[in-house]
Structure prediction request, 309 residues.
Amino acid sequence: MNEIKIFSPATVANVSCGYDVLGFCLDTKGDEMIIRKTKEKGVKITKIVGAELPFETKNNVAGVAALAILDAANADFGVEVEIYKNIKPGSGVGSSSASASGTVFAINELLGRPFNKQQLTLFGMKGEAVASGVEHADNVAPGIFGGFTLVKSLEPLKIVQLPTPSELYATVIHPQIEIKTSEARNILPDEIPLSNAIKQWANLGSLISGLYTDNYELIADSLHDHIVEPYRSQLIPHFKEVREAAIKNGALGCGISGSGPSVFALSKGVEMAHNVADAMNTVYSNTEIEFDIYVSKINTEGIKIIHKK
Ligand code: HSE
Prediction:
């Protein structure tokens, strides 16, 4: 195999009660990438369509991730990378991690799959760090594993794959404002009250139980964020109205996707997810802010191969 084309999906990190540890994979939104073997060693980014991103390998998320996996494999070839961005950088649905995880997944295929998903997540995190300054795995892991994932620990990296109830659908609204992940992290306090921590870990535990038992009521009862949302929601205009409208129209829960500005809701059934999209649409249609809304099933497969030759 000399060339592979993949679909690398958008992902929702945090999922309200799981800041920096929980994430899930979307299906309708994602980038495409073509990775080709070259005789010359090293990594060349040859094409970027759909976003203004650096072409220099060491400044590009995909470039750094590619170098990490090629080095670890001691590969006797290099690669050229074409990136077709459909996920807007800075939208809060894992744009940089889609580039990083897509690249390492594709190169692993070109290498004959020497690495497992856990190892691929580690290489992807090297790329992700270029964009956000910190190595976190809550967007990279759901892209690579599919479905819901829990980052049990970073050192050593341990990813726990979680089940996805079959009727769970996501609605995502992307208000077209920019929020830098670094800024959204900087506004968070270093310490939190124990009472909030208790509520948060109770919700995280019960959400995971709800995922295992297909208990949609329990999932709904758990999708609350007592720690991060109170700070970050101030960065997203009309967040409270969108959240209220989503819940009132049947969403199980609604929160900030990653560091925002996208806002996600989870619903039981695709019809409900579309109702929620309509409700979110009504809120933002009354504002000056441009936005984009989509409904997606939870992608349990993760990154997909479009072709290989
Ligand atoms: N967990 C990270 C955060 C995801 O919320 O800052 C950012 O992409």
Remarks:
- The CA atoms of residues 170 and 266 lie 5 Å apart.
- DSSP finds ten helices and eleven strands in the chain.
- Residues 13-14, 20, 136, 138-139, 181, 184-185, 258-259 surround L-homoserine (CB under 6 Å).
- The first helix runs from residue 61 to 73.
